[in-house]
Design brief:
With 408 residues, the protein is of the alpha+beta class. The chain has ten helices and 18 strands. The strands form three sheets. An eight-stranded antiparallel sheet has the order 1-2-4-3-13-14-12-11, with helices on one face. It has an eight-stranded antiparallel sheet with strand order 10-7-9-8-17-18-16-15.
């Protein structure tokens, strides 16, 4: 049976608040490991300021310099990073690595509760679920004319406790502490994939809206686009690797966006160095190769990877605000990895931005769509234009975009 060394993940916390904490990962390598680690870092809300990656194809050594929050749970972070690392086995004094078996799909639970509405309620509930390490897969939120809210959350449980009586009681108590005496009912049950699929309902994206949101020819000066990145590839500096150089605008989840793209293309990183300058510009030098151990020499493959990285780094998320009669529809699209995972905490950031603007949410839902051979997780939030007050629709779009893209 595979084991994981105790020092596979080391976290050296900074003694001064302005200095970064250093996370060292020393474990067997696998394609996509960097993406998995960066996704966890992003889930814990850590800011990456520098990264060094080195691997011989079998064993990797990764150093991450991060800035945490006051409430960062470092012990839990180490546990989650350890779980993402491939295991190793020891026989006759020789250390071998064994690739992890494909994980089983996690159990899905339906969390259904009813309560009286109040400003910021949806974000407070979303924050409570994140604290419980419950990942929201689907959501259906609706508000009745008399001010009651019926929320349906389809979640997975990283702690694997929600199927137990204690896990359900802890979840109920945590939600009760957030919602208070206005909570009228709360039910938690495990559901099958067929129920999860049925809850998605009909498509809420029209062809015209989808065309606008996913147009690859979107102008570069679009208000919800980052600065256009510089992507170059060079095969002259190494006999076995292609040098991929990126210069781009820094943003929340930048390294994850790069790593998940390379993971989807089944590309391995043998050595890499990522540095951030003045909190606005990021430079990356990555020595990469294909899964067969060869350089990327095919011009069509180079152009395909370059175009994909340019698109992912200029528009990692899509944000659109549309008028629907008396309502305003906020749409946010999040690209999904081939593994089925998307960027974490997107719904959290959306609801936090709207809470900051004191903008009531009439209803919300999440759906998944395959558009242009890619899967997207789309968040739809309906806002009553009469409740926006003096907040312009442009201000709503700008605030949501900054919350999704900015570390601050």
């Amino acid at each position: 049976m595979g084991i994981l060394l105790d020092d596979a993940v080391l976290i050296r916390q900074s003694e001064k608040e302005e200095e970064p904490t250093v996370i060292t990962v020393n474990c067997p390598d696998k394609t996509g490991l960097g993406s998995d680690l960066c996704r966890i870092i992003l889930f814990f809300g850590l800011t990456l300021v520098r990264t060094d990656v080195s691997t011989d194809g079998k064993w990797c050594y990764i150093v991450l310099w991060v800035v945490g929050r006051q409430n960062t749970r470092w012990g839990l972070l180490k546990k989650r990073l350890m779980e993402a690392c491939p295991s190793s086995s020891l026989a006759s004094g020789i250390l071998y690595y064994t690739q992890l078996q494909p994980p089983k799909p996690p159990h899905v639970f339906l969390l259904k509760f009813c309560c009286h509405d109040r400003p910021g309620l949806l974000h407070d509930v979303t924050e409570a679920l994140c604290e419980l390490e419950l990942t929201i897969k689907r959501v259906k939120v609706s508000t009745t004319p008399d001010g009651k809210v019926m929320d349906l959350f389809f979640v997975t449980d990283a702690r694997e406790l929600l199927h137990t009586t204690k896990g359900k009681e802890d979840t109920y108590d945590h939600l009760k502490g957030v919602i208070g005496d206005t909570m009228m009912s709360c039910e938690i049950e495990m559901v099958g994939p067929e129920i999860t699929a049925c809850c998605q309902g009909t498509s809420f994206l029209s062809d015209a809206v989808a065309q606008g949101m996913f147009n690859v020819d979107q102008p570069r000066d679009d208000s919800t686009a980052l600065q256009w990145p510089s992507v170059t590839m060079d095969n002259s500096l190494s006999q076995s690797h292609t040098l991929l150089q990126l210069v781009c605008q820094d943003h929340k989840g930048l390294l994850y966006d790069v790593m998940r793209t390379l993971k989807d293309y089944n590309i391995q990183i043998s050595y890499g160095r990522i540095t951030t300058k003045e909190n606005t510009k990021c430079e990356m030098d990555l020595f990469i190769m294909q899964a067969d151990g060869k350089k990327i020499v095919d011009p069509s493959k180079q152009d395909g990877l370059k175009s994909r990285l340019e698109m992912e780094l200029s528009r990692p998320l899509r944000v659109s605000l549309i008028s629907r009669g008396p309502d305003t529809e906020l749409l946010v699209a999040n690209p999904v990895e081939l593994s089925g995972k998307g960027r974490p905490l997107v719904f959290y950031d959306i609801t936090l931005a709207l809470k900051m603007l004191d903008t009531p949410i009439f209803s919300a839902e999440i759906g998944r769509y395959v558009i242009r051979d890619r899967e997207w997780e789309v968040y739809r939030v309906l806002l009553d234009e009469g409740d926006l007050g003096c907040v312009s629709k442009e201000k709503v779009e700008e605030t949501v975009w900054k919350m999704l893209m900015s570390w601050k």
